[in-house]
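My main concern about presentation is that the manuscript never shows what a single data entry looks like. The format is easy to grasp once an entry is in front of the reader. For illustration, here is how one protein appears when written out as sequence plus structure tokens:
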Amino acid sequence: MRCVSVCVRGEWFRVPCGSTSGSIQLLGSEALRRYHQAKKVKDADNKLEFSMLRCQGGELLHPEDKAEDVLEDNDFVQLVFEAENDPHGCSPLASAVQRSYQEPTECISLDGNSLTTADLVSLGQGLFKIKLTPESEERVKKGREVIDAYIRENKVVYGVNTGFGKFAQTLIPKEKLVQLQENVVRSHCAGVGAPVSVERTRMLLVLRINVLAKGYSGVSMETLDAMIKAFNASCLSWVPEKGTVGASGDLAPLAHLTLGLMGEGRMWSPQSGWADAKAVLEGHGLKPIVLKPKEGLALINGTQLISSLGAEAVERAVAVARQADVIAALTLEALKGTNKAFHSAIHAVRPHPGQIEVAGRLRSLLDSKIFPSQISESQRSFNRVQDAYTLRCIPQVHGVVNDTIAFVHRVISTELNSATDNPLVFAETGETISGGNFHGEYPAKALDYLAIGVHELGSISERRIERLVNPSLSELPAFLVNDGGLNSGFMIAHCTAAALVSESKALCHPSSVDSLSTSAATEDHVSMGGWAARKALRVVEHVEQVLAIELLAACQALEFLRPLKSTAPLEKVYELLRSVASPWDRDRVMSPDIEAAHTLVRQQKVWGAVQPYMDEYKKKLQA
């Protein structure tokens, strides 16, 4: 189904054209409805007068035109209210986009050696500009001098004056060396599918800059400086998400990234939206890159799509894993479970780091000696010996996920700061050496492992949701709602969790166990790392959503235990959730509540609510 992105007062919404019977007017009305729903505007006026502008070119769209006739799939449109036109003569489109974009003032220095996954994600969010350290600039200049010397001396170097892949033995005359580099970029722009998001394209661009800053690629400072200026102006190429096999690196995505920098194809900036790449660059006072010998190959040969998506997956995995411990603790309280299984002595004799860490977190949330729990106190006379595995074995199951994430984080962190193109230029010896650092097997294998590991958080969470909604297991009303039968409560929310877990099981099949020979058997083993990275992100998102449903269910279960209170940190989580989703007293649409809870998890607010209490707990233990 064709979809377009519609900007309403600075907020972007993906709207399927098919859901609006096709017309531009109905497309805008549906986008406005979604805006009011997202902002929780009561009694919203969905009949406000507005115009629709296409971001590319800024054309005014006629309200009666069919969207499929005047818009492309994945097009970008601006909804402008008649009463809100800019009084200073700026176009409504430019005014609205500029209001939603805050240009960063702080800067991160890149040296090719010290970029972190957290920094990369922040750069993707547009929070920082970048510059090179003086040391990295010097390394880049020396690397370029080696290439220039080879050209002057007519030495044969792969990718500089030869063809590529199967054509590596074909010598290219000097007068066609620039054309060679342009050709390799254009021919490798063979990606398909939806474009990588603006944030992920920023990550892709800055990561390629970081790798080039190591000085082993032979690019000129002129070209690298042009890339930095494009990043700082947020001029971002159209990069389709599919088409890489992960060796020789992410050729197709990086070729699309480079094509825009050359002033060809499509490009996005906050001021222009999607438009002709050359026009976007010139509109920001920038010139298209003119590639020098080797630079086309240097810009497209590397594992940066795998690694940038992998960095985001790792950062989100870290966040969801620690919040999974908090939500699990809330469920244990709602089910009147015991915290005996989290005793430090148990985990000291099986000293896996993740297991010990998770057990410690659970104690800091559930220890009624530090944070009294009326719910726990009410169960003291029952003297429950042990719980089901989904409660009792949280440290063991969540723990190995934490250890998996730590391993993947090390691999991805190394990859972010590695020279992954070919051939590599060693200025110290004046050599260029062909090798295989472009092969994406390291991040591909690690990200397959990440998907398998993180999935387990969703799998065990879904089983805890089952215990919450099943009256034979919970001693709570069926599906956590009164007047069962008239009301269905959390019945289908649990089905959603089950569906997400089942889908993730299929996504956990490792992509890196597959390989197809390409480039006439020159590239006869590949990593399939691009798919490993994309599906790892999907699995992480599914886990976030399942845990959001568990959070809703656990808080709803607490309603049936009132007036009893849980521990102070868990009550803070309850208050946080209730700030965005009211108790379930009768059936209503569930999706907005799930999305609101998911947002809390994505923004790490669940963790933020308990962290001060966990710090307090540690201090009291040390006192």
Summary: Confidence is low (pLDDT under 50) at residues 85-100.
